[in-house]
Write a structure and sequence with these properties.
This protein is of the alpha+beta class. It has a 6-stranded mixed beta sheet.
Length: 748
């Protein structure tokens, strides 16, 4: 049961049956309606614009069931009723044809566009690119809504670059869609050298089709979109309009390669060079870098056909989007960024819609005290150089550097690494929800209706775009008070990319997955797979993204044979070729060396059709079915969390890192050659027996010696195959003097 809470950025999990939490949430929600919204009396509601009413319905009705079986909320029910009413109104007033359209928009190339950057300003550019993708998708939605006379309620799905819209059917609908397709793809091809491509398809459907099970419609339009996606820019090629080469050969133009995205571009003589160096940024990348400090502060996005303010705007096709933190009456506001404040709904005027686009970032003021002191010293040095400098390009570079060191500026990776606990390293995390497409198209219990699809998409977006920050509380693994030092680079649809201190990334890779399980009522068909890597701060961010993606792919390949958990298992949407497609896995501390070693071991030793792991285990499932025992096992808890807690319990002295290094070296021999000398482990334990026996672990009440003996000396082959993960984690925490407290001093 989902409590009837008011929509905020704080996640509230579903609960079982009735308990005190249900009454508490209900009471708090009713009090908010009474105090802030005048008990929803008629006079109050009559004075609100339509978009404010829609927001209030979503805010308070998104978790209130519309029927007895609680499958949909009153918000989704009324939203779909409104969407169908707009379709009928268009038939009556605009003489649209009978029937409906399901319009599908796929923005292809998002991953390549966001992560294909090579410069030192990558972090700021990454976040700007992620924001731009959100803006571009919203722009595409507006193009369709304006062309077909629709409203935001007609948008069924909008996340991760995939959009589905319920529309009426004007007689010239093919021409309207072709024009949007042509205009946007022509602009995208010229601006981004073909890295981004808009795939626009539509499917006609009768009223009876959309009022019943729409799973076949969704499958059909998805298949058509897939075919068109593999024929990139086909419509432009057929028209002969695709610009394969740049025809600018004028003497006033020079060809250069962008220092950030690597795109070939032309620039006019005299165009400003970047950072007083010989290389240049293309105009778009330079714009994104400049917007990097503006985007985190943005509250309103205004729309105009005229150039408003070059330093704070992005142009898409012939439309300017102006970003601001202030309310302006002289401009048309297209979107308001959602914020947790009591008067937020007052900002929603007639033409404004909500955009969930505020990702979590770490500002310099949030870093540890000793790191902030280093930043202040650097800032003083740059200011002194700025006073003496006479070169205009050097002055601009120094101003940019000084700005990047201000308290409100997003922290650079170097400073994040220096704020890490233990080793001064950066973690890169990629996460992706499993089998969402399969569940969306044929995984609902009962019929797949418009209401269920809308609700599923909405709640998935909430988790990644709204609730994510409230899951940054991994105290279950280790008790900590400091804030999580994490930059969320991209969170949309069903996936996530984040950079931060390696220790925070390591903990969150486990805790976000656990939160997703609670959020989805521990539904075994819904999972969240993850992979993370650790790097030095100067390692290219694009390579961090690539390696963490490789780690995620390992998690995605971590599958079991079919569990036969359903009677009609052959029709199960997540059954394929004898395998269960459930993953819900995490691949921590991934390296290419370990992946190559595991590939060799699997090839040489794993038995055919066996689900048993080889000597080296890289990926861990939260729910693995153990056939011999006929039960489900949590590998993350058993092989990572539990031994890690033991190795780091009771403020383990730093000198024990040598012991752990010795054990890890022995494991390396076991992994590569299949040989392990257990008497040596017993000897190493014996050397510290007296000290370990004096330390009692709080949860189990056992001595640390007995616990170490169980997890090292008496470990089974399955435990040994995974032991490198908790050992590596503990060793990294002990580096560089161990834990750093907020005062900047070191100690453990």
């Amino acid at each position: 049961m989902c409590p009837p809470y008011s929509l905020t950025s704080e996640i509230i999990y579903p609960i079982k049956m009735k308990n005190f939490r249900l009454d508490e949430v209900r009471s708090k929600t009713c009090h908010e309606i009474l105090i802030q919204h005048h008990s929803f009396n008629d006079d109050y509601l009559a004075g609100l614009p339509v978009n404010s009413l829609l927001f209030l319905l979503e805010k308070f009705g998104g978790t209130v069931p519309a029927d007895g079986d609680s499958t949909i909320s009153i918000f989704d029910m009324y939203k779909i009723m409104a969407a169908k009413a707009i379709v009928r109104l268009n038939r009556e007033t605009l003489k649209h044809e009978q029937g409906n359209l399901i319009i599908n928009i796929d923005l292809s190339g998002i991953q390549r566009f966001i992560y294909n950057i090579v410069s030192r300003g990558a972090l700021k550019n990454l976040r700007s690119r992620s924001f731009f993708i959100e803006l571009l998708c919203s722009h595409a939605v507006n193009r369709v809504i304006n062309s077909f006379n629709l409203h935001q309620v007609n948008v069924l799905i909008n996340g991760g670059g995939n959009i589905k819209i319920l529309s009426s059917k004007p007689s010239n609908h093919k021409e309207l869609l072709d024009n949007i397709d042509r205009d946007m793809n022509l602009w995208l091809s010229e601006e981004f050298n073909g890295r981004l491509n808009l795939v626009l398809t539509s499917l006609e459907a009768s009223d009876s089709n959309i009022n019943g099970d729409i799973s076949k419609l969704l499958n059909k339009i998805s298949a058509e979109s897939f075919i068109k996606k593999n024929r990139k820019f086909d419509s432009l090629i057929q028209r002969g309009e695709l610009p394969f080469v740049d025809n600018k050969e004028d003497a006033d133009y020079k060809r250069r390669e962008c220092e950030i995205c690597g795109k070939d571009f032309t620039f006019q003589a005299g165009q400003k060079e970047a950072e007083h160096e010989e290389s240049l940024r293309c105009a778009f990348c330079d714009k994104l870098v400049r917007l990097g400090t503006i985007i985190p502060k943005t509250k309103y996005i205004y729309i105009s056909k005229k150039d408003i303010n070059r330093s704070s705007q992005i142009k898409v096709e012939d439309t300017f989007y102006f970003l601001s933190d202030k309310k302006r009456s002289d401009l048309q506001c297209a979107w308001v960024i959602f914020e947790d404040r009591k008067d937020f709904h007052d900002d929603l005027a007639v033409s404004e819609n909500i955009l969930f686009a505020r990702n979590y970032i770490v500002k310099n003021e949030m870093l540890l005290k000793n790191v902030r002191e280093q930043i202040e010293e650097k800032e003083k040095e740059f200011k002194a150089r700025l006073k003496k400098s006479e070169d205009s390009q050097e002055k601009q570079w120094l101003r940019d550097e000084i700005e990047s060191l201000s308290d409100e500026h997003p922290a650079m990776l170097e400073h994040l690494a220096n704020s890490a606990e233990g080793a001064n390293l950066i973690g890169a995390l990629r996460m992706d929800a499993d089998n969402i497409g399969k569940i969306l198209y044929k995984g609902f219990y009962g019929n797949t209706t418009l209401e269920k699809v809308s609700s599923f998409s909405r709640n998935l977006n909430y988790f990644f775009k709204l609730y994510l920050e409230s899951t940054f509380k991994p105290e279950r693994i280790r008790q900590r008070e400091n804030k999580r030092l994490i930059h969320v680079i991209y969170a949309g649809g069903d996936d996530l990319f984040a950079l931060g201190t390696w220790n925070d990334i390591a903990e969150l890779s486990l805790c976000i997955g656990e939160a997703f399980g609670k959020y989805t009522c521990q539904n075994i068909d819904l999972g969240l797979s993850a992979g993370f890597t650790i790097h030095k701060p100067k390692f290219p961010v694009s390579k961090m993204a690539d390696l963490s993606l490789a780690a995620l792919n390992h998690s995605k390949e971590n599958r079991d044979p079919c569990w036969f958990c359903r009677k009609e298992w052959i029709r199960c949407p997540i059954f394929r070729n004898g395998e269960c497609l459930r993953k819900d896995s995490v691949t921590p501390f991934f390296t290419e060396y370990k992946a190559a070693l595991k590939y060799r071991l699997d090839k040489e030793f794993i038995l055919k059709y066996s689900s048993e792991p080889s000597r080296l285990k890289l990926s861990f499932r939260r729910k693995r079915f153990i056939k011999k025992l006929q039960r489900v096992e949590d590998e993350v808890e058993k092989f990572i969390v539990k031994p890690f807690k033991i190795f780091t319990a009771n403020n383990v002295p730093q000198r024990r890192s040598g012991f752990m290094h010795n054990v890890l070296n022995m494991l390396e021999v076991w992994y590569s050659d299949g040989l392990i000398y257990l008497p040596k482990i017993a000897w190493l334990l014996q050397k510290q027996r007296e000290e370990l026996q004096r330390i009692i672990e709080e949860d189990t009440k056992e001595s640390m010696y007995d616990l170490y003996d169980q997890h090292l000396h008496l470990a089974t082959p399955r435990m040994l195959s995974a032991l490198h993960i908790p050992l590596s984690w503990a060793i990294l925490l002990m580096k560089e003097g161990g834990k750093r407290d907020e005062s900047g001093t070191d100690g453990r």
